[in-house]
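User: Please predict the structure of the protein below. I'd like the answer in structure-token form so I can feed it into my own downstream comparison script.

Assistant: Understood. Taking the following sequence of 79 residues as input:
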Amino acid sequence: MAEIKDLIPVFAEVLENEEIVLLPETTAADVDGWDSLAHIYLVVGIEKKFKVKFTTKEIQSWSNVGDILKDINDKASVI
């Protein structure tokens, strides 16, 4: 089961911020550099790390880090 600590390396690399702190309620507006382009790189990085693929509908439904984790874990439980 994926946890926030598992996402931090992906966010740290994409956003070039080794000090990043993520909480389930963290949104793009809360994180410097998390813009639309960075979001694409985050999705790609998350898909690679967790060996999952997200639909456009899933990605568009995310409002915070908790939503991302939920979808990762939902997909992992299907495998």
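That's the full token string. Helices lie at 4-14, 36-50, 56-61, 65-78.
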